[in-house]
Amino acid sequence: MAKILIVDDEPDTVDLVKLVLETEGYQTSVAFNGEEALEKVRTDKPDLVLLDIMMPKLDGWAIRKKIIHDEETRDIPIVMLTAKAQPIDTMIGLHVVGVTDYITKPFGRKELIDSVKKVLGE
Predict the structure, then answer these.
(1) Is residue 87 a contact partner of residue 42, using CB atoms and an 8 Å limit?
(2) Given phi > 0 = left and psi -120 to 50 = alpha, else beta, which region is 9?
(3) Concatenated DSSP letters for 19-57?
(4) 3-state secondary structure of 95
(5) Is residue 66 within 8 Å of 36, Cβ to Cβ?
(6) How confident is the model at residue 96 (pLDDT cuts 50, 70, 90)?
(7) Confidence label for 98 from pLDDT (cuts 50, 70 and 90)
């Protein structure tokens, strides 16, 4: 089953997403800030990154930029999982920054699983 990296500075969100994904059979790893996320992307080689935007040290946009500029990680799909719910945020994420999908908090279990399956081609 696919490996998914969950990146969020809110432990409750991380725990919830981890529980939902592991119940579906996915392997998960977690990072609570941008620097930790970049390290885990390089070492864990996840099949998908679920990435919050608003975090300390490096925000989600900066993390995405670093991932796509690294030859070893540029093809890893990224789904933004964020409280930034304005239509402009979604448009920027999908069409300017080029994330694979954009989920706003609060989100439902089905929405999360459907997005993960779609992105992973399942």
Answers:
(1) no
(2) alpha
(3) HHHHHTT-EEEEESSHHHHHHHHHHH--SEEEE-SS-SS
(4) helix
(5) no
(6) very low
(7) low
Q: How many CB atoms lie within 10 A of CB 74?
A: 9
Lowest mean pLDDT among 30-34, 75-79, 104-108: 104-108
One-letter identity of residue 46: P
CA contacts within 13 A on the Cβ side of 89: 16
pTM value is 0.88
**Of the candidate ranges 45-49, 57-61, 86-90, 98-102, the one whose mean pLDDT is the lowest:** 86-90
Sign of the dihedral defined by the CA atoms of residues 8, 29, 63, 102, in that order: negative
Distance CA 97, CA 116 (A): 19
User: How many CB atoms lie under 10 A from the CB of residue 87?
Assistant: 7
Q: Which CATH class is domain 3-120?
A: alpha beta
What residue has token string 């609570």? Answer: 32
Instruction: Give the domain ranges of the chain.
Output: 3-120
Beta bridge partners of 27: 3
Q: Name the residue with tokens 């990072």.
A: 31
